[in-house]
Structures are given as structure tokens and as C-alpha cells.
Amino acid sequence: MIELLSLEPKQDSYQMEVGLTHSGGFTRKVLLIDEYTYLQVNSILGSYQEHRVRLSIYPKWDPFRRKYFSSLTKMNRTCSETLYFACSEDFVSQILELKQQTMPSDEANTVQAVVPVPEPEQPQPKRRASAFRVTRPIVMRCILFSLLFVLFFLRMDDTLLNSAEAHEDFTSPVDSSVPVPYVPEVHTASFQSAQAEAVPEKEQEPAPVQSAEPEVQNPTVEEMELDGSRYEYSLPKGYVALSFDDGPSKYTKEIVDILMAYGIAANFLFIGQNAQQHPEAVQYANAHGMPVGSHSWDHSDMTKNSSGENHNNLLRSVQVLEQNMGRPVTVFRPPYGAINGSLAAEAVKQNLKVLLWNRDPEDWKAQTSEQIIQYFYHTDPSGGIYLLHEKAITVKALPAIIEYLKKKQLKFAIFK
User: Fold this and answer.
1) Measuring CA to CA, which residue among 313, 366, 312, 357 is closest to residue 337?
2) Are 187 and 202 in contact (CB under 8 A)?
3) Which residues form the NodB homology domain (predicted)?
């Protein structure tokens, strides 16, 4: 067992003092950890003076986020809480070294707990020996028949066999009450620069004209992979993308439902503070196949922040989103589109790719939904990445916007 005793920054390093309980007794050790792991642990730990904190000896590599993760458990007299944090490879190495010192005791406990050791047969009293000889074959046959019946039943139901495999989950589960009736049909496409012409796909029969109240469809979109080398992107000719900033809000679900009804998807760039207040909206957008990205923690002008402030700002927003989605956040849109080299470098450190826009209807200051719609009518939508916001008049204008773009026979895109 590894217990966290203290965590503090020093002049040139970060120190974590731990207590190690093993077969030989109890010893104290000081680990020198990196800044990344220190900030991750410190951000979730909070005050722990009245708690005992136990570190997990089972860190794990997450191939989807391409990060190491570990966990700690805060305990007091009445409750315990397990918290997960990202960590460095060096921290993992140190934990595994400590684990080796605890393994003899742990292994003994594990074997004793999960692998029953059969007791040696003891001689039975003579008066019961004959009865045991008679009944033992019958009992063995019954047990064998029961096992064969169970195996046959399991073979008839593959889902039972499949569910037997356990997986460790480092993220908060998505609310099971959120309906997930549609799975987006996503086609991956290579991203091209604004100057490049789109390579047309094979001719398809024209889609039927949408009615005023379209039936719900599975979204069909082209997934564009951002290469992370530039700040501002535009799409090839023949493509269009919608994106929504400043959520989640009371309008998120309604926007998602409209997109689903027309069979398309869009990027949602959520503010961390809003996500903390509306976790169900984050879960709803994610469950319905909408790619979710970070729009900072507090919608401040991050070019005025220090590197440390931007590190924590991005980290907090990503953490609250990932806890509600169970998947990594990879896209970042800076508030006001304000970005400099320092902020861009921090985004790269956190595996985030910057996404800006090249069409702005300025719906945030529009007085009516008609003003927003007119912007689309008077601009060339082909190759456009539209910046929209979660506002009542935008929701009202959205069906007309989508119908107009569909009449132009444009392919809708999302960014990953």
C-alpha cells in the first residue's frame, strides 16, 4: 500500500512524500515528480488534511488519449472517493518500482482471496464412510450435469460470454438516462487547404427535397482531421461545416435535435464553467455523435494570460468535458479567436488542435433570426466554416439555414 503523506513544490522540483506499507513494515520515501504530474494531482486533490490518501499501484496507459493515467483514493471516517489523474511515464516508473516492494504481501493476500486452496482430505468417522462412498458418485454426476447445462446455456447466448470481460474505466460514466437512438455514419476524409479543390466522389442520385418537418435520420458527415500546423482552417469547395460556441446551455439539446432531424452533425465548442453547470447537455451532445471541443474554462482572452494560467485554464476545461463524455477532447477554439505562439504551444502540449472559422454571421448581436438567415443567403457557403452561438434566435434560424445549405448540395463536415 502506498499512502500520500505530502505534496509540495520545491525550488527546482516537485516532491511527493509517500508511506510504503510492505511485508517488512512501514517506510517513508520521497519521490521527485515532474510539473505535469504535480499539477494533475494537485488539481484534483484539494484539501486533504482530514483525509488519508492512498495511491494506486496500478497505473495504466490509455491508447485512445495517448496518456498514462493513475488514481488516488481520499478516505475519512465516513466516506471514500476515488479520483483519476493523468501522469508522466517517469511517475509511472517510480510507482512500479514501489509496487515491487509491496508485491510479496499483496500477492499473498490476492491468492488467499481469489484462489481457494483445497484442504487435504481428512479421514471420516467409520460410521459415515460407507454413506459417503454411496452418495459421492451421485453428487459428482449432478455437479457435472449442472456444469454442462450452464455451458450449453452460455453458448446459446453470446452476449453473456462477451459481458464477462471486465475493463477498467478511468472516466465518469455517461448518464444512462440519455437516449442514444442514433449512431452517426462518419466517413473520414483527408483535410485539404483552402486553395485546393475538393476531389469529387462518385456521382450519387440527388437526395429528396426536405419537407418542412423532416423525419429523423442518422447523421452522415465527412470527418476532417486537423493537422495542427495552422490556426485558421477553411474547407475545400463543396464542403460546409457548422460550429456552435459558448455552450453548453439550455439550448444545446434543441440544437442537437434539429441537427439530428436533418441528418447532419456539427462541432460544439464548450466552455468549462458552463459544462460544470450543465453536464447533462455535454453528455447529450456526445451521446448523439456531436464532436465536442474546448472553448477554454472561462471565455477569457487567453493571450493576456501567463503560460501557467493558460495551462491550468485548458486543463480544467478538458478535464470536466472528458469526465462527462468518456472520450478525449482534441479540438480547441480560443475565445474571440485570439491566439499567440505561447497559447498555441500550450495547446500542442495538451494534444489539442486549434480550430477557427472563416464565416461569421455575428448571430451574437443579431436582433432577429432573419438577419442571421440573410447572411447565409448573401455569402458563398462552399468551403465555409460557420461560427454560431447557442442563442434563441440562432435556434429559430437553424432549420432554414440547414435547408438552404442542403439545397446547395454541399457536404457537411465535422473536425476531429
Assistant:
1) 357
2) no
3) 238-413
Other C-beta atoms lying within 10 Å of the C-beta of residue 371: 15
Residue 305 lies in a domain: yes
Report CA 263 to chain centroid distance, whole Å. 24
Strands 14-22 and 25-33, by their bridges, are antiparallel
Per residue in 241-263, pLDDT (tens digit) is 999 999 999 999 999 999 999 99
Residue 76: what pLDDT?
A: 73
CA distances from 82 to 56, 255, 308 (A): 10, 35, 27
H/E element holding 142? helix 126-156
CA–CA dist 323, 316 (Å, integer): 11
Write the DSSP assignment of 87-134 as a string of letters.
E-HHHHHHHHHHHHHHHHHHHHHHHHHHSPPPPPPPPPPHHHHHHHHH
Between the alpha carbon of residue 88 and those of residues 38, 59, 62, 195, 261, the distances in Å are 10, 10, 12, 40, 43
Predicted confidence band at 165 (pLDDT cuts at 50, 70, 90)? Answer: very low
Task: Classify residue 143: in a domain, yes or no.
Answer: no
For 188-204, how does the pLDDT look when each residue is reduced to its tens digit (9 = 90+)? 443 433 333 333 333 34
- Bridge partners of residue 21, in order along the sequence: 26
Contacts of 402 (CB under 8 A, 6+ apart): 258, 259, 262, 264
- Cα 217 from Cα 359, distance rounded (Å): 27
pTM, two decimal places: 0.52
Residue 61 lies in a domain: yes
Of 53-57, 76-80, 183-187, 379-383, which gets the smallest average pLDDT? 183-187
Q: Which residues pair with 232 in a beta bridge?
A: none
**Total length of the chain:** 416
> 318 exposed, middle or buried (CB, 10 Å; 0-12, 13-18, 19+)?
buried
Residue at grid coordinates 479567436: 337
d(CA 129, CA 138): 15
SS3 assignment, position 250: coil
CATH classification of the domain holding 237: 3.20.20.370
**Beta pairing partners, 188:** 223
pLDDT value at position 47? 63
Residue 228 in domain? yes
Q: How confident is the model at residue 220 (pLDDT cuts 50, 70, 90)?
A: low
**Looking at the structure, do residues 10 and 97 belong to the same domain, yes or no?**
yes
Instruction: Cell numbers for 165, please give them.
Output: 470481460
Which domain covers residue 102, as residue numbers? 2-111
Helices (H), 157-291: 158-162, 252-261, 272-277, 279-287
